[in-house]
Structures are given as structure tokens and as C-alpha cells.
Specification:
This protein has about 525 residues and is mainly beta. About 5% of the residues lie in helices and about 35% in strands. It contains 5 helices and 33 strands. The strands form 9 sheets. A 4-stranded antiparallel β-sheet has the order 1-33-32-31, with no helix packed on it. Strands 2-3-4-5 form a 4-stranded antiparallel β-sheet, with no helix packed on it. Strand 14 and strand 15 form a beta hairpin. The longest helix has 9 residues. The chain starts with 7 loop residues before the first helix and ends with a strand. The relative contact order is 0.14.
């Protein structure tokens, strides 16, 4: 199966040697909370997504709101940024965004048949193709997907009469006047009250003629952003939706819950096709669930989905209508004798992302990030240790449910780096080019290098050499390792996104959106 033609960049970078590690700097923060300020549950960010151009960013929160940001630095020179780059114009400013608009996407609901509350929390946001100056995006909570159109609308106002009777302008220019109430009272159907034609004629055409026409003028001055729900895709999932993904054909998308993946057409909201169904006849035989699903970025017939057993399946929609069998299976064989009570829990894949060229898949499980080549199903091409230092604490993590946290992952547009979140509002950036030893730990704060952990000195992709075994933990205190770094399990950075064409990362720490550039 052809995985795309993006392998040339990796070959070139291998010949030139690994790129130098990036130096990350703070760019912006939205919704920064002051010290001691309590975070409201509904304000916690639950989804982040850049659009394909990188000029817009969307976040969703647990309160069902979607907030949009737009890029401002690309407009500073009055010309298109891409045109300037083609002219080798030095673009020195880093990406800057500003608040654009927000709207209430989902409301809390109640399923009366199952006696279940349906949260308004936004699980995923995906941008669709923009058209005619309007932005389109999909947002979903546990049960319902919505298709939104966000467009600037000019506010039309009826201004005052165009000519003041006391200041009649010979050229008919617009002047201000007060709107006089009509002396002719009209009935509801438009007919007039009974009066003679002559008196009516005198009212409309007074003797001496009309000094000027008094017509109202409609003006459209300021613009207002309007978000309108175009489609609602509901009643297709018995279990909680964990993923939505647009197809490269621009017409269809998939939605995935624990046991099924459905294929939708954007224009048809009352019908979907079930393309993957892993529900067994007897639910007692259930051994794994679907955790994440995504379309291939360029091949409209291919999609991948991950499972709670740590495997990733690639399926081809051309094979059959119901894709019970996979085209390729990616999983790592566990080392003999390493199995424990936690093995399956920490192997569960929480997120998968295709690289931009479609050649690689990045997956995140509890302990690691793995990079897979879709042409090689024998095992991952790279494994990055993220939480190896927590292995001795798996019992505590299981007791407080932290072991079930679902961290997202992302790749840079050039495919040379990957990133994912961790605890204590930390996130990690790894170099995945051949020979790279880049492994940077950053904190979601205005000083991202404050909790910088030294990168490994030997060529390895593991952080375990710099983050050693946790040595003590109080009842409520965070883990403190031998280097003095503390790890707070109550503050976790689950959601982050990499700008599609630049080294810029947006990440969510509770209700705050932090942005960094390199």
C-alpha cells in the first residue's frame, strides 16, 4: 500500500545530519488565571485545533463553548504572508493570534431512554474547508456532532430620512432628518381606513408640490461575526464519541465511539454508514475498544484507528462496505516476563495522528510516544519515553485514576519533531529525525524553561536518564524525583496542537491557552 510520497524530506535531512534542537520561547497566553484563582470546571479547555492554513485556531471547553482565534502578524505588511515568503522577504515576527469570536456549541442534555445525562463538554473540533470567506468546523460532545458556519455579517441599519425638509440639497445629497410618523394609518392587510380619495390625494400630493423625497436609507456599517449551526448529526452512537476526522475529499467525515466508526456526508445529517463494528455478539466477550480514529491526510480511502490493547489498524474503504478486516496491523510485541496487572492499561493508545505526508503515524499511550512507518508493520521506528519515571508509582496512579488520563500528541508540519503533554503542566518535544537526541521538557507558563530537565547526554530517545525514579510521595503532595523536580498529578496538560507550517505550539493548561514558538 502506497503511503504517500513524502519520504524524500527524511532522506535529505538524514544526509545533512539531525537538525539542531529548538529553543522555545513564550508567545502568548489567553485566559491566564491569577495566583490562587479557582478554575471553574466549565472553563477547562478540552480540545484544540489549528486549521490547515494555520491562520485560525479553535478551542472547545467543558462548558460546550467553542472559541476561535485568528492570526494577526501575517497581515502586518498588508500583503499575503505566503507571497512575501516566495519573494524571500524576511518574516521575523512569530505567530500571534487574537480573540475572534465564541459561540455555544453544545448544551447539556438528558437521554430519557437510558436515564443518562449527556455532558456539553466538547470532545473534538475539526476544521473543514473554508468557502466564500466563511469558516466551517465540526464539533462534538459525547453523542452529537454539529457542523458550524462562522461568517462576518454586515449589520444593516435603517438610517434617518435622506433629506432634511428645512435643508433641501439641490443635488439630492443625504442629510439627516427626523422620521415623522405617517398620518395615514394603515390596517394590518395594508389597506387604508375609509377616507375620500380627494383627501388622500391632498395628503400625498400637497398643493405647491413636494420639496423633496423622504425615503429611508439602509446602511451597512460595522460587521458582526455570526456562528450558525448548519447541520446536526445525532442519534448514531450508542457509546461516547471519542474522535471525528475529516476526509481529504472534502465531502465526508468519520465519527468513532468505543465500538463503532461511522462514515458521514457533510450534507446529509439523517444518515450515516457503519464502516467498523467491533461489538461482539456477547458483550462478555469484549476484549478491546476503539480509542481514536483518523483519516489519512491524502488518501480518501484509508483511515487508521487505535485500540485499548495498544494496536493500530489501517483499513481500506475500497475493500468492503463493512471493514471487519484490516489492511495492516501495527502493534509492538511485549517483552517476555514483563506482563503485569497494569500492562494492558498503560498500553492503551489514547491518540493517533498521521504525519502531514501520510507516511508515518504517531501514537500516544500512557508511558510512551511511538512513531510508526505505515510501510513497516513489524514495530515502531521510534519510541520516546514520556512517563517511564512513573513506573514505580503505577499503583498510586491506578488508585487516583490518573492512569486512565488520555494525553494527546502532535507532529510538526515538517515531520521532524513530535510533542505530547504530561503532568505538572509540562509538555515534551522530541526530535524524530535520524540521529536526533532532542528531548526538551517545557512548562505551560510564561517561563517555559523554568522546569527544564536536562536532555540525555547519550544518543537515546528516553528521558529516564534525566528523570530518575520518584523517591517520595506524601498523601497529597506531588512526586519529587532525585533531581528535585516535582510532579503534580492534579495539573495535567492533555491537549496540544502544532502549527501546520511553523514551529509553534498551542497547549491547554486548565482554562488557559498558552502559545510558544521556536
Amino acid at each position: 500500500m502506497d503511503g504517500g510520497d513524502g519520504g524524500g524530506g527524511e532522506v535529505a535531512s538524514a544526509a545533512a545530519g539531525p537538525p539542531t534542537p529548538l529553543e522555545w520561547k513564550f508567545s502568548q497566553v489567553f485566559g491566564e488565571r491569577s495566583a490562587g484563582e479557582e478554575v471553574q470546571e466549565v472553563d477547562i479547555i478540552s480540545a484544540i485545533e489549528f486549521d490547515k492554513t494555520g491562520d485560525h485556531l479553535a478551542t472547545g471547553d467543558r462548558g460546550g463553548r467553542v472559541v476561535l482565534f485568528e492570526r494577526t502578524d501575517s497581515k502586518e505588511n498588508g500583503e499575503n504572508r505566503r507571497d512575501l515568503e516566495r519573494m524571500d522577504y524576511p518574516v521575523t515576527r512569530h505567530p500571534e493570534f487574537r480573540y475572534k469570536t465564541e459561540f455555544q456549541s453544545h448544551e447539556p442534555e438528558f437521554d430519557y431512554l437510558k436515564s443518562l445525562e449527556i455532558e456539553e463538554k466538547i470532545n473534538k473540533i475539526r476544521w473543514c474547508q473554508a468557502a466564500n470567506g466563511a469558516l466551517f468546523l465540526l464539533s462534538t460532545n459525547d453523542k452529537t456532532i454539529k457542523y458550524w458556519k462562522v461568517q462576518e455579517k454586515k449589520i444593516k441599519k435603517i438610517s434617518e430620512m435622506n433629506v432634511d425638509p428645512s435643508k433641501v440639497a439641490g443635488n439630492g445629497s443625504v442629510a439627516s432628518s427626523s422620521i415623522s410618523s405617517s398620518r395615514n394609518q394603515c390596517l394590518a392587510n395594508g389597506s387604508r381606513k375609509d377616507r375620500s380619495f380627494d383627501s388622500l390625494n391632498n395628503d400625498l400630493f400637497p398643493s405647491g408640490g413636494i420639496p423633496s423625497l423622504r425615503l429611508p436609507v439602509v446602511t451597512s456599517g460595522e460587521t458582526n461575526l455570526l456562528a450558525r449551526c448548519r447541520r446536526v448529526y445525532a442519534h448514531a452512537h450508542d457509546y461516547h464519541i471519542n474522535s471525528i476526522s475529516n476526509n481529504s475529499d472534502g465531502e465526508t467525515f468519520i465519527s468513532a465511539d468505543d465500538l463503532r466508526i461511522n462514515l458521514w456526508n457533510l450534507e446529509i445529517s439523517n444518515q450515516s454508514f457503519n464502516i467498523v463494528d467491533v461489538k461482539p455478539t456477547n458483550m462478555e466477550d469484549l476484549t478491546e475498544v476503539i480509542t481514536s480514529a483518523e483519516f489519512h491526510p491524502t488518501h480518501c480511502n484509508m483511515l487508521g484507528y487505535s485500540s485499548s490493547k495498544g494496536s493500530i489498524r489501517l483499513i481500506d474503504l475500497r475493500q468492503s462496505a463493512l471493514c471487519d478486516s484490516h489492511s495492516k496491523l501495527f502493534e509492538e510485541q511485549e517483552a517476555p516476563g514483563s506482563r503485569s496487572f497494569f500492562t494492558e492499561i498503560i498500553a492503551s493508545v489514547s491518540d493517533i495522528k498521521f504525519a502531514r505526508d501520510g507516511r508515518y503515524i504517531l501514537s500516544r499511550d500512557y508511558m510512551t510516544l511511538k512513531l510508526w512507518d505505515i510501510n513497516m508493520d513489524s514495530g515502531p521506528v521510534s519510541t520516546f519515553q514520556v512517563h517511564e519515571y512513573l513506573r514505580p508509582k503505577l499503583c498510586d496512579l491506578y488508585e487516583n485514576d490518573s492512569i486512565f488520563d488520555k494525553f494527546e500528541c502532535c507532529l510538526s508540519g515538517d515531520g521532524l519533531r513530535v510533542a505530547t503533554g504530561s503532568y505538572s503542566n509540562l509538555f515534551r518535544v522530541f526530535g524524530c529525525a535520524p540521529g536526533s537526541t532532542e528531548a526538551t521538557t517545557l512548562e505551560a507558563s510564561k517561563n517555559p524553561m523554568r522546569k527544564q530537565v536536562q536532555t540525555p547526554s547519550r544518543p537515546t530517545r528516553s528521558l529516564s536518564s534525566s528523570i530518575t525514579r520518584a523517591v517520595r510521595r506524601g498523601a497529597e503532595s506531588p512526586v519529587v524525583d532525585a533531581n528535585g523536580n516535582s510532579f503534580d498529578f492534579t495539573t495535567k496538560l492533555l491537549h496540544l496542537a502544532w502549527h501546520p507550517s511553523e514551529n509553534s505550539i498551542a497547549c491547554a493548561a486548565a482554562n488557559s491557552l498558552y502559545m510558544y514558538y521556536a
